[in-house]
């Protein structure tokens, strides 16, 4: 029996965006084709010992050459929206507008035009982890210069593609990029600089986003009428012991250090959460850190991040129970600053990767939390998914159940709680290059056989069932 067929589609608004998402480095391949410059992920993967079995995104799903196969997948699902990212260094090989790669422009023009011809609305992420290596060589996200480079790139994209693209995300998951790339060294550029660079990188991402949003607002919005946001990921967190005040406070810190870090400046106050400011300052004192504030301050002379999002772009995967660790001995580090540890509840099933406890009701609670704390924004769930590790079954019934439960929770948030959810993007359209896990972890609605050059796309049962939900929603609309 098809589980997703039981989903009541009535709760979803008429113009609900039914989408799937991907990111350039994870699917495109063609890493040095047709004038593309290298990105930090090319460099990271080409160095040995960083990624599962030293795999790389050199070819990935070869979407650079097989775009039309992806389009068939999109058509088969009946998506109304498709979220993809631009490879910055495919468009601007050295990261700057000094030289534009015409073949990169041609590629993305074709993708966008094909989508629109098929009544699929593109949502474009300008930077999904793959910073041009040439800019990394100039200091990357740690350098204040990056704000100018990002703004020029964003303006170039708005100018070139904004007549057709109406939904933009500037930076994907600054939390993950800063934490895994500069604190833990698990993602590109692979730096381990605990307790310092992470905040600087986050700050520069926020400043870059702010500049780009203002550029759009000033120069493009009146001509193009689109919307711009920043892609924020968050777990949902609850206290491990709800009767323990320390765990309750730690839970708030846990949320503040992941979601509030960016959501608070953009949606609430124009500044970082108080808990971050006070904890980081106290820890700096404790460790005798005297090289200036580790958490940068927003300057009066700069544009404020407050109000720089036309919708809330939320990536949700999992939940945690949180215990207080604020008095545990620690090194100078992000986790030490946070003073909170998230653990999984033994009753939660885990899918594929150990971090991914499957908790659909966490999304429901998180949606309500965003409604309450971020001034009831319009929300697009820009990523959410369920992973499998090989050998995988095309009859992925667990994943079907996951989508059923998740969409049920989303529908409850809309119908029962009045959360303004505008769309849902499954991560991911295709099995793809899952960063440090290489091709071992599969999130796709379509299966790929990475051992064969054809890289044939084959729909999973979860893909068929997701398509059935979309089709039922569309049929219902036609009748009313
Ligand atoms: C990222 C995706 C990634 C997914 C699953 C998100 O953090 O935006 O690129 O594949 O999580 O790990």
UniProtKB/TrEMBL annotation:
What keywords tag this UniProt record? Glycosidase, Hydrolase
Tell me the InterPro entries matching this sequence: GH, GH_1_N_CS, Glyco_hydro_1, Glyco_hydro_1_AS
Gene3D superfamilies, alphabetically?
Glycosidases
* Record GO biological process: carbohydrate metabolic process; glycosylceramide catabolic process
According to its UniProt record, what is one Pfam family this protein matches? Glyco_hydro_1
Positions annotated as active site in the UniProt record: 383 (nucleophile)
What's one GO-annotated cellular component?
Answer: membrane
For this UniProt entry, the molecular function terms from Gene Ontology, in alphabetical order, are: beta-galactosidase activity; glycosylceramidase activity
Superkingdom is: Eukaryota
Provide the family line.
Belongs to the glycosyl hydrolase 1 family.
Supply the PANTHER family for this chain: CYTOSOLIC BETA-GLUCOSIDASE (PTHR10353:SF291), GLYCOSYL HYDROLASE (PTHR10353)
Name of the featured protein: Glucosidase, beta, acid 3 (gene/pseudogene)
Q: Taxonomy-wise, where does this protein's organism fall, top ranks first?
A: Eukaryota, Metazoa, Chordata, Craniata, Vertebrata
